[in-house]
Amino acid sequence: MNVLNLVRRTLLLVTPPALLVAAWWAATAGSTDFFWPPLSSILGTFGETWFEGRFTSDVLPSLGRLGAGYLLALVLGVGLGVAIGSVRVLRALLEPVLEFFRAIPPPVLVPILMLFAGIGTGMKVLVIASGCVWPILLNTVEGVRALDEVLRDTARAYRMGPRSRLVHLVLRGASPQIAAGARQALSIGIILMVISEMFAASNGLGFTIIQFQRGFSIPQMWSGILLLGLIGIVLSAAFQVVEARMLSWYTGLRRSRREG
User: Fold this and answer.
1) Does pLDDT of 146 surpass 60?
2) Share of the chain above pLDDT 70, in %
3) What's the Cα-to-Cα distance from 216 to each of 55, 82, 115, 213, 221, rounded to whole Å?
4) What percent of the chain has pLDDT over 90?
5) pLDDT confidence of residue 218
6) Nearest CA among 125, 142, 127, 114 for reference residue 61
7) Nearest CA-CA partner of 24 in 46, 49, 12, 41
8) Which sign does the torsion angle of CA 17, 18, 21, 23 carry?
9) Best CA proximity match to 191, nearest among 87, 70, 75, 83
10) 58-259, what's its fold?
11) Domain assignments of the chain as residue spans, ordered by start
């Protein structure tokens, strides 16, 4: 039964991208449009474009910025979310401020961040973090607020220490919603990674794709877009593996409730 479930999940994962690639290949097979080249031409330039020097000079720096910005957002979002969700007065005080900053699109902050952080890697990391932090923060706040009061009272009755209560009650109880926010933040981070590298950059995926576009290297530009999609798929799959391990207790609980 487990094997059948694995095969079913693999087919569900592989079939949509395979259909999309097949449709793209068929739609562009005889294309003579300069800006819409055949997929075969794009795939023909893919390896040469990205794995002969640019992988270390452009792809890895982009992934490093994404990782740094995402981890910074995760630490800030979970830390502030736990504090705001736990203290009612703090939540009432900060809620209007959070709503104000959440409404500001992160790309608008790029010129402002450039003034304070310069045009280097720090600015790009801050741009990624400034967009990723909101779904993590807001989901953490809601997860902490939704904790069962009976569990809180039980923790007090058993005189659990602050650290033990934080780890075993608050973070564990809010972890499903924290994971949901972290998943949303990952896709936002990839978008902001590209946008941040379009401003005063000298390397990175966003910078290189724009250079291809400006130099009318259209197959290479499309290969960069294809690479971004592949990176998104790989990161999403890695996130699902980590999420499944961390939330195995939660999925097991939901399964037992459905079966009961």
Assistant:
1) yes
2) 95
3) 21, 49, 32, 5, 8
4) 36
5) 92
6) 125
7) 41
8) negative
9) 70
10) MetI-like fold (1.10.3720)
11) 58-259
SS3 labels along 112-128 = HHHHHHCCCHHHHHHHH
Phi, psi of 217 (to 5 degrees): -90, 75
The confidence band for 1, taking pLDDT boundaries of 50, 70 and 90, is: very low
Farthest-apart Cα atoms in the chain, separation: 74
The residue behind tokens 């957002």 is 73
Average pLDDT, the chain: 86
Q: Which residue has the higher pLDDT, 188 or 258?
A: 188
Residue 256: Cβ-neighbour burial (10 angstroms; 0-12, 13-18, 19+): exposed
Q: What is the pTM of this model?
A: 0.87
Q: What are phi and psi of 87, to 5 degrees?
A: -110, 110
Q: What mean pLDDT do residues 59-82 have?
A: 95
230-244 burial, b if ≥16 CB within 10 A, otherwise e? ebeeebeeeeeeebe
Cβ neighbour number for residue 156 with a 10 Å cutoff: 10
Q: Indicate the length of the chain as a whole number.
A: 260
Q: How far is CA 13 from CA 6, 169, 233, 239, 256, in A?
A: 10, 34, 10, 14, 25
Q: What one-letter code names the amino acid at 10?
A: T
